[in-house]
Task: structure prediction
Amino acid sequence: MNKRLLAFLLVFILIFSFAASCDFAPTVDVGSQASSAAESRTASSAASSAISSQAGAHVSSEESASENESRLLVVSFIDVGQGDGILIRTPDDKFILVDCGPAEAEKSFIAFLKSQNVREFEYVFFTHPHADHIGNAVKVLQEFKVKNVYMPDAATTTKTFTNLLNELDKQKDIKITQAKAGQKITVGEVNIDILSPSKDKYGDLNEYSIVFKLTYKENSILFTGDAYIKNEKEMIAASYDLKADILKVGHHGSDSSTSTEFLNAVQPKYAVISCGLDNSFGHPHKSTLERIASAGAKIYRTDNDGTITLYANGVEIVIKSEK
Ligand SMILES: [Zn+2]
Ligand SMILES: [Zn+2]
Result:
């Protein structure tokens, strides 16, 4: 037998025994989902091993694959163009959605959620009633079971927002909560602390943005919607523990947000900006990028990097981007 044939046979046996040892059954329903379930599992397995090797874990690879995978927090900052759409999968496989992008991104956004095997959301946050954050809200409520919705006590007269209210009115079994600083949510080992809005009235819809800190063991992420420097000042004045590994940069990197004082309080290792390529607002603004760079955070941007996904095991975080 020549060497090439022997190598080929060896690879074939390895692939076959790996496939035989994988148990996709619990997540497989029908054909198309089978492949996406396998893909998403493979992606998180790869991240598990990456985290294991980074963290210097000394468990055997078999153990780390099964144990770490079920203990990962996965957050995807979905490329929705100009807007925000963030999917969170908790380590115990519950889904949380933070905004849902503009209507223009409907097809790819809903397709992404389905590719991640989302069937129901434990919590959906509509951070504020702008169309680049709630553009696909009705579609989300119709396509997936939603248990809880958090939204600020803010209203506008746009069709997008009115349609959302009408849909919520139809779906009587969704629990709706007006978000307010000081509220706490627990999903398994994941804790969510709502830090803004703290006042009843603001001048601009962006200032009503729900800001929350999500903590999983030693890892934390700060979600800011389109909150302004005014809100950042309020959160600093309230002496909240704002320190977080990852900062979802406020208002698509606009100069209206992300002050140096706020960055000093958050001390992020990574900053994620969700914005559209060549958007008409000029987001992210150069001055914001400079402030973030001076704060020493590595910047990821959906306009350049595509969908950005982070995997956290409670100690280490691995970030992977689509592009
Ligand atoms: Zn926005
Ligand atoms: Zn906005």
